[in-house]
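Cross-posted from the bioinformatics board.
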Amino acid sequence: MKFEAVTIKDIAKALGLSTSTVSRALRDSYEISPETKRLVIEYAQKINYQPNPIALSLKERKSRSIGIIVCEIANSFFSQVINGIESIANTRGYNIIIAQSKESAERELADLQFLASRSVDGLIISVTTETTDYSFLKDLYQRGLPIVFFDRIVNEIATHKVISDNVKGSYDATKHLIDQGYKNIALVTSSEGLFITKERMAGYQAALKDHGFVVNADYIKHCNHSGMIQAEIEDAVNQLWGLRKKPDAIFAASDKLTTGVLRLLKARKVKVPQQVGLIGYSNADYTELIDPPLTIVKQPAFEIGQIAIELLLQMIESKRPVTDFETRVLNTELIIRASTRSK
Amino acid sequence: MKFEAVTIKDIAKALGLSTSTVSRALRDSYEISPETKRLVIEYAQKINYQPNPIALSLKERKSRSIGIIVCEIANSFFSQVINGIESIANTRGYNIIIAQSKESAERELADLQFLASRSVDGLIISVTTETTDYSFLKDLYQRGLPIVFFDRIVNEIATHKVISDNVKGSYDATKHLIDQGYKNIALVTSSEGLFITKERMAGYQAALKDHGFVVNADYIKHCNHSGMIQAEIEDAVNQLWGLRKKPDAIFAASDKLTTGVLRLLKARKVKVPQQVGLIGYSNADYTELIDPPLTIVKQPAFEIGQIAIELLLQMIESKRPVTDFETRVLNTELIIRASTRSK
DNA sequence: TTTATTTACGCAAACGTTCCCGGTAACGAT
DNA sequence: ATCGTTACCGGGAACGTTTGCGTAAATAAA
């Protein structure tokens, strides 16, 4: 089955003109008479001419499409970011190609190769928690592919980045738990190498110190797949519950981790917030419906996406190489609900 | 900024061959000597040659990309379907372009035009609840664009369709409520024109009749935007609560409707399931965490996506026009939890 | 040795555009 | 009458591939 489209040639033939004239008329060139222009434009409209984007891409050597790599689109944070990206990209005539890494460095590499081979004009990516080797990404970038990082950014590559204020977000979350009277606050977070993990840990630790608590390494648990596999959350919780002094509050530093921890707490019949307070990063729109309603740190996901694509388009459409990069840091929102309302 | 790639010409020049020879060597043509092939292939590998998909697209007159239109990717059902589509598309060398209609017929049309102009090779779509005019879709289809419908299918167009067994799913849900002792069972569903609405209504009505209940039209409420706007759900619930005999159970026929109804019930301090039982279509992975844990009808979303893309690729890659269309109907799963455990 | 066949490669067109060069009128100025 | 402008328009190359056709050399058959 094939889908036959009308081309500039058809117009030229029908009107007894050359393709160049038609092309110019359509692009409103000054060296075409108003009369001819009218003729061409009217006829083009009549037969519903649509320029072939593929031919254009070949000529201009760009595809007017940009790649997005996230670990999972079913994750509310990422789907909201994508919404933000799409909202701008569409109006600027770009289409987006989404690939999911599923928190696997291997799949991420495959996605990267796939997108590169489809010659996207730019890339927006939140890397895997697994990723340690950025050489392919670096190579792509050095060969001229514009890249913008968001959320899980990589600092080794100098380009635009957009994140939320992880330190402050975590500080606020931890401080809230302290204010509520919790004493033994555990942190369940992603893999140690990740920049956002470091930042969220820093915020957590700073809040503890500022309020006269000591940081207990036993209370900090890393899930190297960010909760994509339930078993690692289970390990974390088991270890936490194996301690002499069990935590009386948990701060979960990502969407999947938050629901994962709650699931396990429920399985253990631990009462939230009476026995354990729970606060988590989340962008889900159902956290108020959960039992108990969840106190969350919410990231401005949609805006993150919008800013990321703006910065990327800026790079793509820039005449000369961009050298002045910025890291945009957005504020998070703390939404207080019952899951931390114990004491 | 530009991203310079290595072409077949570079190889030809470097090796003192013609581009045709290089092309043929790369495609392992019989009329190229083994020696030359080895040379070309080795060199291509060395400089990491990647065929330009755009040039190929122009030549073959296809883009190896397929369009997907759903109302919202943040919806778990749709993101799972997309996962299914992607899982197959990627292995077959196709990339997917996702567009969101946001339940707006206007945006849907714009998406359609956008995808058509990007010359996708095929389309997988679940139409808007608003859509009543299928002429553009029909036109596209008649001009040769392969289309597969899923979920919200349109019967006026004869092509492959894949849905879940809506009648049975709704029958089971309604029967479950009856079995639990509920007597006044309301249905909150999408706009009346939609095929899946009709089917789900049919299942609901059949179950009622089969068990000696009369169908009360007052108990059937339509939300024309499928719950995308909270106000319409509010209207529905308000009307239901305005009845002399209030319903003692609600069957919500979509993801957004289910959480939307629950939200309103909570706002009214209605106890679920004691005062009102609640069952809903949902593919969210957190329904067990909700208060109360939700009884749901779950669709095989991932499989729906996989089958849809299989059927589409079959159409795309078929030499002669496909005339034999099938409608695949998959079974839903009823997951019983506390929200219907009243009596 | 001559002719027919095979082997191995190059030429050029095509896909749909854009755009750099031209070129041809018409017209006013010299 | 000649020249320089201006206004319009067409020819053709180019973007990176594939592919039908042509053809030289090498080999086989006569």
